[in-house]
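Fig. S4 source data, part A: sequence.
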Amino acid sequence: MYKPALYGRSPLPYSVATPFSGEKCMVSARWLKVCMALCLSLLLFVTACSKAPSPYEQVQKDTTGWGAPKAVAKDAEKGSTFNQFFPSLKGFDVIPSQEKKGFAEYKVNKDGKTVAMLSINDTISLPTAAVKYQSATEQIAGYPTVEQGSTTTGILVNDRYQIKVMSRDPSFTREDRVDWLQKFDLRGIAKLEGTAANKALLPNNKPSIAPKLPPVLSPQPAG
């Protein structure tokens, strides 16, 4: 039986949709999603790295605190100079914790537990750290003292060297901090170079006063 040709429809095979064309679109869309996910992950990683502090900054913040300077002044004392001034007490282990230019810190351990931290730092790198002592109303061993938070007591020697005792256990009270501050070799620290404006006003050293001279009388001409 004769069947007439269907006009308007091309019998060529390339005009017929193949099952492979849909798979190509799906593969392309899948790769696009993978690339977008990788780009997003990379962006989040870079952002997190840019905000994270460097190990040095974190250590400095934890150990010195109160806005300690990132840069150390050229004339700051060596940290090793401070080691000889730290105290020791029977029943406690005083162990070096950190040392760098302008700063030294020790741990105070008792029964294998850290109960306090001791530190000496040269405020020449950050003079504003010594400013708070100008308004101090109390003294310890003749030096101005301030409370820094509820767990730290500090004194300033020679208007330059800040000595701090920090409690790390509730059993280590303010009275203990005051007691340990007085066990430092404060006289030895006072012999270190101070600020130029106050070197003559160290404890036990009175400023020199020029003696008063008698008035000089000038002869008056005869009237």
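Fig. S4 source data, part B ends here. The first strand starts at residue 93 and ends at 100.
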